[in-house]
Amino acid sequence: MIQHVRFHGRGGEGVKLASRIVSRAAFLAGCNVQDSPLYGAERRGAPVAAFVRCGNGPIRERGYIEQPDVVVVMDDSLLSQPETAVLDGLGSTSVVLVNTGARAEDVKAHHGIAGHVVTLDVSSIALDVLGRHLLSAPIAGLTLKVTAIAAWEDLAAAVRLELTDVGLTDEAIERNVTATQRAFDAAPVVRLFGGQRPRDVLPAAPFVMPHLPARLAAPSIEVAATSALRHTDGWRVYRPLIDRPHCTRCFLCFALCPEGAIHLDADNYPIVDYDHCKGCLVCVAECPPQVISAAREALHGT
Length: 302
Hints:
- Helices cover 29% and strands 19% of the residues.
- It contains 9 helices and 10 strands.
């Protein structure tokens, strides 16, 4: 029986690495595994998906998972963006894991999710233990605890192996193990895998290459100047706050903002366009008098 796990998040949150940790843990637990990422716009904050297939039988599929057993939502703002197709292909037995402080029943009702929903504020765990919004290891902890695909010992080994491969220090790796264990311990076990979900019959072939429909893979742009209409405020974990009375009006934040989300008013004081600020915090790092601070955004869905 093969389990199909689909991850959705944003660039910079560790989507690819989360899928690799889950697949590595499943492999250490004795499963056949396959994992692969899918990139759209390769930039921090852009939607990213990744896929894990694992089980005790041969894996004859490749590419996009269209009928997931488990969907892992690393950034719950994606649930409100239909074009990211986060909830596509779900069935009544599917499990949806959402990184949010909201209650599972509220997320299920608000988004009309047919399957089982589990929520956990993984962002707060990552920020508390790691000091940064790095979700890959603790998200893997949530995923493997809920699905019971692999035991804690295999997960901890997988975190250490994968994070060693990407060059983290021993200290950073152990902090990630701590964050992973906190998420693992806080998550419930659902165990909804007594029987495999009925699937579309695949043609007799060594493997199948599913593909995204054109409406998702190549959306049409029919009018000009739509960037201003596309708000990206949901991408932020922190927002920059400018202490106007102490601002020296050096213009560096205005000049260095990669998104053009800082403007100058009539008196040449900077103003943040929060509809389009993605929370990269370049302005906080580069402000000479250090009068720009970072404030945690309210959790989505709360």
